[in-house]
Write a structure and sequence with these properties.
Layout (H helix, E strand, L loop, with lengths): L1 H24 L12 E6 L4 E5 L7 E4 L2 E7 L2 E6 L4 E5 L7 E4 L2 E7 L2 E6 L4 E5 L7 E4 L2 E7 L2 E6 L4 E5 L7 E4 L2 E7 L2 E6 L4 E5 L7 E4 L2 E7 L2 E6 L4 E5 L7 E4 L2 E7 L2 E6 L4 E5 L7 E4 L2 E6 L1
Antiparallel strand pairs: 1-2, 1-28, 2-3, 4-5, 5-6, 6-7, 8-9, 9-10, 10-11, 12-13, 13-14, 14-15, 16-17, 17-18, 18-19, 20-21, 21-22, 22-23, 24-25, 25-26, 26-27
């Protein structure tokens, strides 16, 4: 009896530690992309690195003192420890544009840039980096962008999505939500009880339950990825009812982009694979606290 209780306690502690590590490892926001060839990491010392092209390409140092990095198309966004946001467009050595300060999250998609300010105000701009901001919401704790869709997660757990112009009306998608994900015409939410749900099509489409005991949910094109509270990562592709493929264990973060899958292990090692779900892994970096794919 004593051994059984000790083992159970150990499992519980391990699951809690993995969940805590996953939450701390990446700032809530966009880590998955739409089929680009850029890979970005934030190291434990706050250094941000980006590579483009093959998985074995060389890294370019993009900044230090970084809390969050986002890559989308030919744009890179950094959220610095001091709350300032820098965005660049073009090649990896392009100059930075200071976009905002007092920010707690950044999101990029196409020619849109989104931020959540320290006071919970969500703003999005469209077009050139120097475009004016449009107020999208208040009391926001997470912002997601995908194509012409914008999603926000309010402090009370309500998830809302709009599509079309920046000033479009919101549709309430779910409540009791802890995370929101967007990709194309798919919307995903993670509920407080660990249930992951995804819908496809119109904003009013029906939800499909994808997984239980999840602590992270990621979408990219026709792929769905979840990280379970025991550190297991699973990915499926195709229809919402497709079968899962186990991608690894002892994982604290996952990211998806087109036919690429990225993971960060509890050791801080980051791996990326390309191609089928069963493709081999390539080691990309160590001492990683966040991994993002474009």
């Amino acid at each position: 009896m004593k051994k059984s209780l000790t083992a159970a306690a150990l499992v519980a502690v391990t699951a809690t530690a993995l969940a805590t590590a996953a939450t701390a490892a990446a700032v809530p926001g966009t880590v998955s992309g739409d089929g680009g060839d850029r890979i970005a990491v934030v190291k434990g010392d706050g250094t941000a690195l980006v590579k483009e092209g093959p998985l074995y390409s060389a890294w370019a140092v993009e900044g230090d003192g970084v809390k969050q990095i986002v890559v989308a198309g030919n744009r890179i966004g950094l959220l610095k420890d001091n709350g300032s946001v820098l965005v660049k467009e073009g090649d990896l050595s392009a100059p930075w544009t200071v976009a905002a300060d007092n920010v707690k999250q950044i999101a990029l998609s196409g020619d849109r840039v989104g931020i959540v300010k320290g006071d919970g105000t969500a703003l999005v701009k469209e077009g050139p980096l120097y475009s004016a901001w449009t107020l999208e919401g208040e009391s926001v704790k997470e912002l997601q962008l995908s194509g012409d869709r914008i999603g926000i997660l309010k402090g009370n757990g309500t998830a809302l999505v709009k599509e079309g112009p920046l000033y479009s009306a919101w549709t309430v998608e779910a409540d009791r939500t802890t995370h929101l994900a967007l990709s194309g015409n798919r919307i995903g939410v993670l509920r407080g009880n660990g249930t992951a749900l995804v819908k496809e099509g119109a904003l009013g489409a029906q939800w499909t339950v994808e997984a239980e005991d999840a602590i992270q949910l990621e979408l990219s094109r026709d792929r769905i990825g979840v990280l379970k509270d025991d550190g297991t990562a699973l990915v499926k592709e195709g229809a919402l009812g497709a079968q899962w493929t186990v991608e690894g264990d002892s994982i604290i973060q996952i990211a998806l982009s087109g036919n690429r899958i990225g993971i960060v292990k509890d050791t801080g090692a980051a791996y990326v694979k390309e191609g089928p779900l069963y493709a081999p892994w390539t080691v990309e970096a160590d001492n990683v606290t966040e991994l993002a794919l474009s």
